[in-house]
C-alpha cells in the first residue's frame, strides 16, 4: 500500500509533516509506504535529520506550492508541478492508493472533482468531520462545507455515505443517523429538514433515529448527523473554537482534550472512488500521523466497495 | 412602570420565579412594579414565605397553565385563563408595559403574534439571543429559531432590529454587524448568504463589517450577527451545551462562567410594538431577575420609538 502525502501543505509544512511521518513510521505494524510530494531540496535534509527510513518512503519532486489563499482552479491549472497537482495525478494513475494534504482546501476539492470519479449514483461528493463526544466515542457530521445548498435527496445520500463510513472506518456496527434540526418532532425545522425527514425515515439502508438538535451534537444521541454544508460548517468551526478558547485561557482538563480537533486528523472526501483526506491548515505532527493512519485504514477497508454497491441501485 | 411576570412558566415555576422576583425587588432602585400571573392559591403562601413586599406587586389570578408540550395555538384558544393568555391580554390592553414568561415558547410566540402589532414595515418579528464572548462583552445573534426559512430582505431587517437593540439596550454605540457565513470573502456561502451580503453592504442604517464564521461567533468580531433561524438555533443550542458539558464534568473556571446562559435571562421578541421576553424552560432565580431587569430597561429605553422610525420609510 502506498499513500501520497503533500509535504508542502498547511501552515507548519514541511516540518510538522516530516514529524508526523516519523511518528507514523515508528508505530509497529504501520502498513503503508509513503510517497512524499514536495521540493526535494527542502525535504532531503529534513528527512535525514528526522531519520526517516529510506526503504519506507520515496520523494516525488514537486517544486511548486499552491498557497492557502490562491484561487483553486486557477492555481491547479497553472501549477501542474505543485504537490497537490502531482498528488492527484499519481492517485488517478493508480501510483498511490490514497492522497493526503493539509494545503489549500479548495484546490483539494477541485482536484478530487476533476482527477477522480464520483461513485456512480452519488449526486454530490461530501466532506465530513469526526465529532468528539461526551461519552468518549466519536460521531460523524456531514456535510461540513462542500455543499452549502442541498436538496433532501442529497442529505439522504449523505446519510448512506456517513453510515458506511461509520461502519467500516469508525467500527460502529449499526450507526444511528440523526437529522440536524431545530426541534425533536417530525415536521419541525426549515423546508429542507421537513422534506428530508420522510426520505430518511423510509431509507432502509440506514438506521434513522429522528431529529437531533444543537444541544445533541456533542452528546451520545446519533452516530451520523446529516445537514447541508452551511449549517455543518458553522457547527464544526464553532465546536473547534470551544477547545481553542479553553486552551487560550489555560483551562486544562483531561476531559477537554477530546475536543482538540487535531487528534482527529483530517476530513475524508466521501462519494469519490479513492481515498482523499483534507487536513486542517493548522495541522501539526499528530494530525499528520492520524491522517496517515486514517488513509491506510480507508485503503484496507471495504468502504469503497460498499459505497459502490450501495449506490448501484 | 408595570411588568407582567408569568409565575407558572418554566420547569422550576413558581418557586424560582418567586425567588427571582425577590432578588429583583431587593436591588436598590429597581423601577418596576410587578403583576404576578398565576394561581393565587399557590402563589400567596410562597410570596409570604419569601417576604415579597405587597406594595410592589399585584397577583392577577390565572388558574390555568399551558404545559411545555401543549400545542400553542390550541392551548391559547382553550385556556383563556392561563397565565400566558392573561399576560398577553393585559399587555395588549396597556395594563402592563412588558410581559415575561419562561413557559411554552410556541404559545408565547403565537400570543405575541395575535395579541400585539408588528411594527409597521417589519416583515417578520424575530427572536435573538445574547452571545457571551471571549472579551467579556456580549454579542447579539438573530434569528434563533422563529424564522427557519428566510429571504435576504428578512436578514437585512434583522440586522436593523439587532443594531437598534444593541445600541439602546446593550449600550453599544456603533454595533458592528456580521453575516454568519462559511467563508470570509464576499461571494462565499449558500444562496441566501450570497444574496444577503450586498443588501447588508448597502444598508446605511447599519455598520456592516462582512462575514463572520463559526469560529468568530464567540470572539470579538461583530456585535450583531444575523442568520436565518435554523442556523441561529443550532448555534445557540450548541453553545449552551458547551457550558453545560463543562459543568457536568466539574470543570470550573471563572472564565467559563460567562458562558452560563442563565446569566443572560431570556430572549426578547423584536419587531413587535411592546416588550415581550421569553425565558428558557430551565430558568432559575437569576434568570428571572435578569429578565425583569431587561424588561424594565426595554420599557424605559427609546428602542420602540427608534424601531418605528427606522421602518417608517
Helix proportion range of chain A: 40-55%
Q: How many β-strand stretches of chain A?
A: 11
Distance between the termini of chain A: 30 Å
The CATH superfamily label of the largest domain in chain A reads: Isopropylmalate Dehydrogenase
How many helices of chain A in DSSP terms? 11
What's the structural domain tally of chain A? 2
Mean pLDDT of chain A: 94
State the oligomer: homodimer
Approximate strand percentage of chain A = 15-25%
CATH class of the largest domain in chain A: Alpha Beta
Overall shape of chain A = globular
Strand order of the largest sheet of chain A: 3-2-1-4-11-10-5-6-9-7-8
What Rg of chain A do the Cα atoms give? 19 Å
Largest sheet of chain A: 11 strands, mixed
* Structural class category of chain A: alpha/beta
Outline the low-pLDDT stretches of chain A.
none
Query: In sequence order, what are the helices and strands of chain A, one letter per element?
Result: EHEHEHHEHEEHEHEEHHEEHH
Subcellular location (chains A, B): Cytoplasm
Organism (chains A, B): Flavihumibacter petaseus NBRC 106054
Pathway (chains A, B): Lipid metabolism; phospholipid metabolism
InterPro entries (chains A, B): FA_synthesis, Phospholipid_synth_PlsX-like
Describe the SSE topology.
The structure is a homodimer of 313-residue chains.
Chain A: E1 2-6, H1 15-26, E2 33-38, H2 40-49, E3 57-61, H3 72-78, H4 83-92, E4 98-101, H5 105-115, E5 126-132, E6 138-142, H6 152-168, E7 176-180, H7 191-202, E8 207-212, E9 224-226, H8 229-248, H9 254-257, E10 267-270, E11 276-278, H10 285-300, H11 303-312
Parallel strand pairs in A: 1-2, 1-4, 2-3, 4-11, 6-9, 7-8, 7-9
Antiparallel strand pairs in A: 5-6, 5-10, 10-11
